[in-house]
Write a structure and sequence with these properties.
- The complex is a heterodimer of chains A (about 450) and B (about 850).
- By secondary structure, chain A is of the alpha/beta class.
- Chain A has two domains: about 325 residues, Alkaline Phosphatase, subunit A, CATH 3.40.720.10; about 60 residues.
- Helices cover about 35% and strands about 15% of the residues of chain A.
- Chain B has 35 helices and 16 strands.
- In chain B, strand 9 and strand 10 form a beta hairpin.
- Chain B is globular, with a radius of gyration of 31 Å.
- The chains are: A alpha/beta (about 450), B alpha+beta (about 850).
């Protein structure tokens, strides 16, 4: 038989209906034109298209400060607040007149022109898992649907070179690809680089003593032995997908570019030095390298911000120095390599911390009504503060912005329409960001 | 709806009889009455004209007034007004909102005639925005929807002129939609048919509503359908066209044979089993010839992976291939059903469907998340080992409360603590109930429980109806609200929230001498530790609250009398809330007198006419064997998504019930069929069909099965039996699905995340990271090279390379290599630096073939 596809030929092409009256097949067809649709066949078609048409270099880095960093003791100091709120840190001036941040962030104070501080971001989910889901997807979590991480959406929308993974998480990401499916899952590095030492990543770098020649040889054997299902060529999505991914995996594994992208020891010492030797600093260094080599999305996870106990000691000794060093080097490093304008950076934890000090533990507890975020790159004007909290940092003045608004803006900066609709596999239409509105000041 | 129009028997509305329970049935929701003999009312486009067509007897002359429910709302639907992108949007559009897909007749009417800017002008019908906007006499973002001098305009205008009346008490109920012809068999592309749809109403009237229906084709490469219901055959295949009107959803099968081999020209193929007979029945109408029987090696590999989640060992494969008995396949099926792998693997599937996710357990007790998850899995596995009838298994979940009958709170805590005690000899898996299904974080509200329950046990997605009329099924928002009431009284509580258990808890805590400041996680950890030491500690529990106080009939009458405005109606609804509930497609039932409303649900599910309970599980299990369900997706039993083979689904569901819900009967019935044992190699007639079971469709191994298969294929002699007997740690028996700390490989291969009430939480799609893992991950390469693995074992001795090659094939693919494969493999081994390096590459290559990672 030739011609006419029939019967819902591919399992993913099953005809079904959506909640809103548009049938899935319609969406699949639209999907081929790049609007939505999540079948494997679309994916194959789409990646093929992505490779053949040169696109503008666009990338993003998401820095996830897990645990929820205190806003008052970092980017939203309240030196004039009463004792029970203020905390022991003093503010210092920054490179931008009139803007002050914590004294324990001197390097970040010195390069504020590279980034923008968002104050008074507000939501209501003051528990770690829910808050994390919220800020990692830009959608308030709901029980019936798992939203995709930023990286999953961006790698789906922007694509990337065939010999590199589309989303790398250093060392790992908790948020999965949700309704977009496993093919948009992140590659977790599982570890962070050690300063000056060669670095390789699970699955991507050649193991042990293997050489490229060894790999070519065994690949040759595989090609010759993997003939049994040839009959299904061109007729079965699964077979086509496996063939394609086998080829792509081999390309990545043997690609010198992929290996080099991960190997931070190839960076010049003068460029690498400002990042410091901490795991976070090295993660930032790795992120700049990956973006430079063409990886469209990098997530950096940096935990330890859940400072119920001894907030100030922990911040000034363990948390803030690496953040200050790593993040300022990331901004400056991207700028130095000419990548900052084409890379969007978003820095956030899942919430802020209670303005009122918990005197029993000398700490601050979970607080979602006010928090800070940072954004940089992608042509945004830096050196600004957007939004404002009240005198004690207890809530935004005026309405404040939600994580959804920031997400919408983040996607917009990457040329992705946040209101674009996807189709979940249950046939439900969902916008990339369901509730958010772009924050216009950030785009100006 | 009857079987003659192609609908499966199970689509009929169900009337419920529950014996032994005191029920008050307050009258059927949809009363059926016989249609008159006189023939239907002519279609509306013939009754209404704009007075231009002088010769015809316009309805205006006959004085007919269009009816809001029968004519106006469906017409608005046909014109596209209530779609999601238009006024059906929850925010409305241009200041005017309609209910999405109609069916909220009162709200729609109010939005048309009332508000700041009414769409209807009763004093001057022609000035109504409802007409001027779609005519584009006023700016309309939705463009031109209505033509001058059309019957549509005439209908709407006349409705307005006659007072724009909405739905009243006298409005008849919709009974059913009848669509003819009931089946379309195509012979050539371009062939056309006109569908005719007749609506039947409870007052005995019936009307040709073809011009008011919405139509869709489920696959427009097989057939297209236009707005007027004209179907055009497009190409070979098998699909449905569907007509929608009011609450009616009627799919009409379209069959377009793929070859000339139909009727007398269809070859004679013996049907060994009833399944085969029913599958061949469908295939013969399509001119599709099934593929040949698969080889013994393929069968062994396929059935072992499907039934026990385990790859057959090389030794087992050799024995099976050498077995000459004619019934060896049936014997193997029986043998596999008794292996530990069967219960171990299928318990994981059941945990997927019931939503066993450690992260979603309310971790507010000493039975902490992972402990609960493991207990849930063990409970499920024990039930499958016992082969407990499926309806009883479900009963023990549906009716579960934490306490056993007559058990005091203190005794309950003692029993539960015993399960956690180190070295204790009792296990949660040995007690009858699974209350953890109800104590999930995702089951906190009645809505969530209703959605999750319908997904797990009925295979029905009623999410849509939570907010609006289900666009592809009969469910309305009202149906959802009434169904939800079954779940209002079950809840998970902390002992301290309930007075009588609170005091028991307090004294328990005092006896344990626990720091009163200890709270949250730390308290739970402390309690878990004490329980492990053998102390009795307090637990939270799933309970069923007592029924609300009986309704005072006088009060109710007063409420009803006053229920005129929507607000008053809402008050009445609130007053009645939790007192009555309605099973899907059935009658309203009073709950006041019932000890546990879930008993009514269960009785309904067990009724032999229940359209969902048995079909849902039978279809799900079928889909695990055939890549797709008979209804696909398997968790979407809905009117507009009919089964690809209704008699087959009916047979399996009925047989399953008659066999006392015996799961092993179902597995046996499927695995012994020729249909299951077909080869995957297609022929010219079945090449493009993956929905009608004419051949085996290759499926990627499920995550856990894939991971274990790699371990079996690479294991040394000593280890391999332990793995296969599930004595060693197995991925197929890993109970804990959690975001943190999950296995990298299982995550990458898409094990179910058990998050969102969807079978699609499990993924069997391929991905780049899976292939990267198989080709180059240290964990994967480590398995090949492990110290006690097969590679080390076989290369340590002076084995014959040809034998090694054969063994490598048997342990990965359960077959011998072809001559060409053997020669190529030997050449590689000889050219390698060492025997070990050569064999390593061979094993690596075989594990990376499609043949390995796919069940075929």
């Amino acid at each position: 038989m030739t011609g006419g596809a029939l019967f819902g030929k591919q399992p993913t092409m099953t005809v079904n209906q959506t909640c809103d009256g548009v049938r899935r097949r319609d969406f699949l067809r639209i999907g081929a034109l790049g609007t939505a649709g999540l079948s494997l066949s679309d994916y194959l078609r789409w990646t093929a298209a992505a490779e053949s048409s040169p696109k503008r270099a666009k990338a993003a880095i998401f820095v996830n400060l897990e645990g929820g960093p205190s806003h008052l003791d970092t980017f939203d100091p309240k030196p004039d607040a009463a004792d029970e709120y203020r905390g022991e840190f003093r503010p210092i001036s920054t490179s931008v007149p009139g803007i002050q941040i914590s004294e324990h962030l001197p390097k970040l104070a010195g390069c504020l022109e590279h980034y923008t501080i968002l104050r008074g971001i507000t939501h209501s989910l003051a528990a770690h898992p829910l808050g994390q889901k919220y800020v990692s997807t830009g959608n308030r979590p709901i029980p019936s649907l798992e939203f995709p991480s930023y990286g999953a959406v961006v790698s789906r929308e922007l694509g990337g070179p065939a010999d590199l993974p589309l989303h790398v998480a250093v060392p790992k990401i908790n948020q999965g690809a949700g309704y977009l499916g496993v093919k948009y899952a992140a590659l977790n590095t599982g570890s962070t680089p050690k300063a000056g030492r060669p670095y390789s990543v699970r699955g991507v770098s050649l193991a042990g003593s293997l050489t490229v020649e060894d790999v070519q040889r065994r690949q040759g054997l595989l090609e010759d032995l993997d003939q049994r299902m040839r009959q299904l060529d061109g007729q079965n999505d699964l077979v086509a997908g496996l063939d394609r991914f086998t080829e792509q995996a081999h390309t990545i594994i043997t690609s010198s570019r992929a290996r080099q992208a991960f190997d931070v020891s190839r960076e010049s010492p003068s460029f690498a030095a400002p990042f410091g030797e901490t795991p976070f600093g090295q993660s930032c260094l790795l992120a700049t390298r990956l973006v430079e080599h063409g990886v469209p999305f990098v997530t950096i996870s940096f935990g330890g911000w859940d400072t119920h106990l001894d907030n100030w000691t922990r911040l000034k000794e363990r948390q803030l120095p690496p953040l200050d060093e790593g993040l300022s080097a990331l901004f400056s490093g991207l700028a130095q390599k000419g990548l900052l304008d084409s890379t969007a950076v978003l820095v956030t934890g899942e919430f802020g911390r209670t303005p009122k000090i918990n005197t029993e533990r000398n700490g601050r507890d979970h607080y979602a009504r006010a928090m800070f975020m940072l954004m940089a790159g992608a042509g945004m004007t830096g050196g600004r503060v957007i939004g404002e909290t009240d005198g004690t940092g207890s809530g935004p003045l005026h309405d404040g912005h939600s994580p959804d608004d920031v997400a919408a803006t983040f996607y917009q900066l990457l040329g992705i329409d946040p209101t674009r609709e996807y189709q979940t596999s249950t046939g439900r239409p969902v916008m990339i960001v369901r509730e958010g509105t772009v924050i216009p000041e950030l785009l100006s | 709806m009857n079987t003659s129009n192609g609908l499966p028997r199970f689509c009929r509305a169900v009337v419920l009889f529950v014996i032994g329970l005191t029920l008050s049935v307050t009258g059927p929701v949809r009363r059926v009455s016989a249609a008159a003999e006189t023939g239907p009312v002519r279609p509306i486009d013939q009754r209404f004209t704009d007075g231009q067509d002088a010769g015809r007897d316009s309805a205006e002359a006959s004085g007919e007034i269009p009816d809001f429910r029968r004519h106006v709302v469906p017409l608005l639907g046909r014109l596209g007004c209530n779609g999601r992108a238009c006024h059906g949007s929850f925010q409305g559009q241009g200041g005017f909102r309609l209910s999405l897909f109609g069916y909220d007749f009162n709200a729609d009417h109010e939005n048309l005639v009332a508000g700041d800017e009414p769409r209807v002008d009763l004093t001057d019908a022609g000035a109504s925005l409802m007409l001027r906007k779609p005519l584009e006499e006023e700016p309309h973002e939705g463009g031109r929807r209505l033509e001058q001098k059309s019957w549509q305009l005439a209908v709407l205008r006349r409705w307005i002129e006659e007072g724009a009346v909405g739905v009243t008490d006298k409005t008849a109920d919709f009974v059913r939609l009848e669509v003819t012809p009931s089946e379309l068999v195509a012979r050539e592309p371009g062939q056309t048919w006109q569908l005719r749809a007749v609506a039947v109403w409870s007052d005995g009237t019936f009307e040709d509503v073809t011009p008011l229906c919405r139509f869709q084709s489920n696959d427009d490469q097989v057939a297209t359908i236009d707005a007027h219901g004209e179907v055009t055959a497009r190409g070979p295949g098998d699909s449905h066209v569907v007509a929608f009107y009011d609450n009616g959803v009627v799919p009409v099968p379209v069959l377009f044979p793929v070859s000339g081999r139909v009727g007398d020209d269809y070859p004679e193929i013996v049907a060994t089993t009833k399944i085969d007979e029913l599958v061949l029945g469908k295939l013969s109408t399509l001119g599709e010839i099934p593929s040949d029987r698969c080889s013994d090696g393929e069968f062994l590999r396929r059935v072992s992976l499907d039934l026990t989640g385990t790859l057959p060992t090389a030794a087992e494969a050799r024995t099976f291939l050498a077995d000459n008995r004619s019934d060896k396949r049936a014997r193997k099926i029986d043998e596999l059903l008794e292996r530990p792998g069967y219960a171990a693997w299928w318990a994981t599937r059941f945990c997927d469907w019931t939503g066993n996710n450690a992260r979603n357990q309310q971790n507010n007790g000493p039975d902490r998340q992972n402990v609960v998850s493991a207990a849930w899995y063990d409970w499920m596995r024990t039930r499958l080992e016992e082969n407990l009838p499926y309806d009883e298994l479900v009963e023990r979940i549906v009716l579960a409360r934490s306490r056993l009958e007559d058990e005091s709170y203190a005794d309950y805590c003692e029993r539960m603590s015993g399960y956690l005690a180190k070295g204790g000899d009792t296990s949660f898996a040995d007690q009858p109930y699974l209350p953890y299904f109800w104590s999930r974080r995702t089951f906190r509200t009645t809505e969530e429980r209703a959605l999750g329950f319908a997904y797990t046990f009925l295979g029905v997605r009623i999410q849509c109806a939570q907010c609006h009329k289900h666009p592809f099924d009969q469910w309305t928002k009202d149906d959802f609200d009434r169904f939800e009431n079954f779940f209002s009284r079950v809840r998970y509580v902390q002992a301290r929230q309930v007075p009588d258990t609170g005091s028991v808890r307090s004294s328990m805590m005092a006896a344990l001498d626990i720091d009163p400041d200890l709270k949250g996680n730390r308290l739970d950890q402390r309690l878990a530790k004490l329980a492990a030491q053998g102390q009795t500690v307090p637990f939270g529990e799933t309970v069923v609250m007592p029924p609300p106080k009986p309704v005072d009939p006088e009060k109710l009458a007063r409420f009803k009398e006053r229920a005129a405005t929507p607000k008053q109606k809402a008050r009445l609804q609130q007053f009645l809330s939790g007192r009555t509930a309605t099973v899907l497609g059935g009658d309203e039932i009073a709950l006041d007198e019932v000890d546990d409303p879930r008993q009514i649900l269960l009785a309904w599910m067990r009724d032999e006419n229940n359209p969902y309970f048995a079909p849902a599980i039978v279809n799900r299990i079928w889909s695990c064997y055939f890549n797709v369900g008979i209804v696909e997706p398997p968790d979407d039993l809905s009117l507009a998504n009919p089964p690809s083979n209704a008699p087959l689904l009916e047979f399996l569901a009925a047989g399953f019930r008659e066999q006392g819900y015996d799961l092993k009967w179902l597995h046996r019935e499927i695995c012994n069929s020729d249909t299951y044992q077909r080869g995957w190699e297609p022929n010219d007639t079945n090449r493009l069909d993956e929905r009608n079971f004419a051949r085996a469709v290759p499926r990627r191994l499920p995550a856990e099965v894939a991971y274990d298969a790699i371990r079996v294929a690479t294991a040394g002699t000593a280890e391999v039996d332990k793995i296969c007997q599930v004595d060693a740690k197995r991925a197929i028996a890993d109970p804990v699905v959690s975001r943190q700390g999950g296995s990298y490989a299982l995550t990458v291969f898409g094990r179910s995340i058990r998050e969102s009430n969807c079978d699609c939480d499990r993924s069997t799609e391929p991905s780049l990271l899976q292939t990267v893992f198989l080709q180059n991950d240290a964990e994967m390469l480590g398995m090949i090279d492990r110290r006690d693995g097969w590679l080390a074992e076989v290369t340590a001795t002076d084995s014959d390379p040809a034998e090694i090659v054969e063994e490598a094939y048997m342990r990965t693919l359960a077959r011998r290599p072809t001559a060409a494969e053997r020669d190529r493999s030997l050449a590689h081994i000889h050219a390698a630096d060492s025997l070990r390096a050569g064999v390593r590459d061979l094993l690596w290559a075989l594990l990376n073939t499609k043949e390995f990672i796919v069940n075929h």
